[in-house]
Design brief:
Layout (H helix, E strand, L loop, with lengths): L9 H22 L5 E10 L3 E10 L2 E10 L1 H4 L3 H17 L7 E3 L3 E5 L2 E5 L4 E2 H6 L8 H19 L11 E3 L4 E4 L20 H15 L5 H22 L4 H17 L3 H15 L5
Parallel strand pairs: 4-9
Antiparallel strand pairs: 1-2, 2-3, 3-6, 5-6, 7-8, 8-9
Bound molecules: adenosine-5'-triphosphate and magnesium ion.
Amino acid sequence: MGVLRRPAGPASAARRGAERAQLAQAAGLLCGRGDRTGVVDRRLAAGVQSRVWRIVTSGPDGRSDHVVKWFRAGYRAGNSVAAEFAALVALDRAVADLRPAAYRVRCPRPVRAWDWGYAMSTVSGCRLDLALARRLLPAEDERLLADDLVAALSAFHAVHRGPYGDFHAGNVLLGADREVYLIDPGPANPGFFNWPGPVSPPPLAVDLAYWTFAAAATAHRRPRAAGHALRLAGALRDAATELMSDPGLAAEVDRCLADYWKRLASQGLRQRAVAVAATRLARLRWDG
Ligand SMILES: Nc1ncnc2c1ncn2[C@@H]1O[C@H](COP(=O)(O)OP(=O)(O)OP(=O)(O)O)[C@@H](O)[C@H]1O
Ligand SMILES: [Mg+2]
């Protein structure tokens, strides 16, 4: 028996029409020259706040592709699109100045922004939590990668003057030949990172706590991937403590994490249950 679908209403048809028109406009502008054509190739991802599309342009000089992130109207208020694009620009600058290391940490190159979204270069790689679960990263390389991710994160903080905001294992892509891509910088929900009291925790503590928070809070959906991300959280903390020469950093991470659980628990009964289960999980060591 088929499942009946509610027909899309006029509002959603209008929204889709606007999205298509905006993407078509982007495809036209990304061509750069009159003898090139651009097409919206396919959707790569759809999140709560945005949808990610691949746009291919071609012409006598060959083919190239871009990724365009389109934001839902509800998310565009409060300058969020510009803020996320600015964070990507900062990340691009930060990774350009990294010293040679075991892993080359990169990010998509920011290309162009509109009020509804932005375009960037295409990168390719496997989400780090899935890569860990599939054993695509040798165990002995985990600490090396943690060192390089923390160095990149710290360089980003210096340029951006604020936390990465959405630093979790789904926003790190493991590419070929020891290339790693950081994607999706800039807090999707900046209010989440406002701290009570006059002293904000160091941005490294904010971001590393968020890594653990995101892994543990999504463990009911992807237990294996989350478990591996939680294990890497330990290596990231050790790397950060060493890089900053700050033995107090781990306590700051714990302070932020406790705050995240409190906020999650205050959002409702279901969130409270997730927070309680995830807090326990985050304390466990994962060797699976
Ligand atoms: N530059 C890129 N090149 C290739 N794939 C990309 C690129 N940017 C995003 N993607 C793909 O789209 C997915 C979602 O991207 P992103 O993390 O930016 O959005 P999101 O997490 O859904 O966004 P948000 O949390 O802001 O709602 C990524 O996991 C990746 O598969
Ligand atoms: Mg993301």
